[in-house]
Phage major capsid protein (Granulicella cerasi), 391 residues
Amino acid sequence: MNYRETVERRNKLLTDARTAMSAENVTAETRSAVDAMLADAQSLKGDIERMEACAESEQRSLPTNTPPRGAVENHEAKDERTFEERNRAANIALRSFIRGERFEQRDLTVAANGGVMIPVAAVDPIQAKKSAGSIMDIVKRMRTTTGEDVRQPLWDDTSNGFVLDSTSITTTDPSITGTLLKVDGLRSNPILLDNKLVQDVSYDLVTDVNNAINLRYIRSVSQAIVQGNGSNFTALSAPSALTSTTTAIVKYANLVGLMTALDPAYSTNACWSFSTATLGQVMNLTDANGRPLFLPFNDGGISGFVGTIFGFPVKIDQYAATVATGNTPIRFGDHSAAYTLREVEPGIVIKQSSDRWIELNRLGVVAFARAGGAPTIASSTTPSIVSLTIK
């Protein structure tokens, strides 16, 4: 048989095998016949590969008489596929790579070793969730192309003004200090994808892995902004404006005092930030007429702002301190002026390796990023953010 006849013969064997196994009642004789068909198909596959190798070798041995090439033109085709189509193609390629298959293999009902693959149905996984809050949305985010240290100048001229021209001349320069913004090298622990699991499930593996990595980054950076990480993330420390009057309790008057302690210059971008545990106490606060202090937003789950207190929006920060003696669980002010999160482009970089875990038949997915942060409060007398200390 020639090459074309061999290919057609193998395709017919595979088609007949699938038809036989799709019958309502499959007997032992049918199974034996299908096994024989698959064995013949596997033998023909070897013949096809040998024919292709011979043809390639013959082609290489022929003399070439190629005319000189002209200038190479760049005809890069624009990828017109949608995001969903590109993501689906990447998912198929990743699954095929893990299994060690050729991408052109289309007959997924027959395994490479000739055995029949029985598909296993699977739906999208139900994933556990943990909120990091929205602190990353309200601080200043600086993106740089390199990771060298960056100086953030802090200019305070709030104590200076005009004087009578009869006053003796003295210099009144602004107070200029600065914060050094450094970055840490961050890494996620590897996500191992088991080959057997990849073969059995049919949901979008690429999207699940990317989402898990992005959420790990958001949780880690949000916690580092609020609590620090002992390295190049310095915790957001809002100056304490007042102390609550009752032990381990937040009262109406405390929030009034905290709001009025902030200089009005920062009111335009001011918001409250605290955890949902603290929100539970705030939602129980009412004025003398029984009206609630906290007014929820109907779209709080979508907009990220859960409501307002005295007309100023509330942002959730799940890593903020709890309402306990000595803690500062509630902040109020312009968070973007009070803290700078620095990230090095391109952000999160995802890398894959199948060699390190080859004995486990798994693919490892690891992500890397470079980020850091520090408070940028320019004045101690008129700070851009203030906090409440619990008695």
The CA atoms of residues 252 and 289 lie 13 Å apart. The longest helix spans residues 28-61.
